[in-house]
Predict the structure.
Amino acid sequence: MSLDALKSAIPDYAKDLRLNLGSVIGDSALPQQQLWGTVLACAIASRSPRVLRELEEEANARLSPEAYTAAKTAAAVMAVNNVFHRTRHLLSDPEYGNLRAGLRMNVIGNPGVEKVDFELWSLAVSAINACGRCLDSHEQVLRKAGVDRETVQEAFKIASVVQAVGVTLDAEAILAE
């Protein structure tokens, strides 16, 4: 399947999503690897089987094997980190922040692609998973690396649209049963 198939599946009541999906992917200023790595990581994080099926094939065709694996890795490691750090932040006892995490995250130091790309994908997944601590952390790393705010925003725009498409199409599938 493809991006076009996904866009055509979006119901008319959500036509803004169809337009947004086309623009955040089709009109993105991000380089190909950053764009399609963000798309793949967000498709995974969206937890929508349909979105993942439709976007994975195109992402796989447009990414090197290393970037494809790194984007999947970003989604996986952020699935752990976002829950852990969001929970630490939400608990009223700040002492949890002083405890050793004890979670393996070695891939963040050597993701197999440019660190900026991995950080961008991690930020996008953190947007979907609503972890403010992770968002702040990845945004700071990106900004220190010289990435402008427009690029950072491009990543979370992709995240927001991919997530919304997943929610909409999954709801439609349930309602059609």
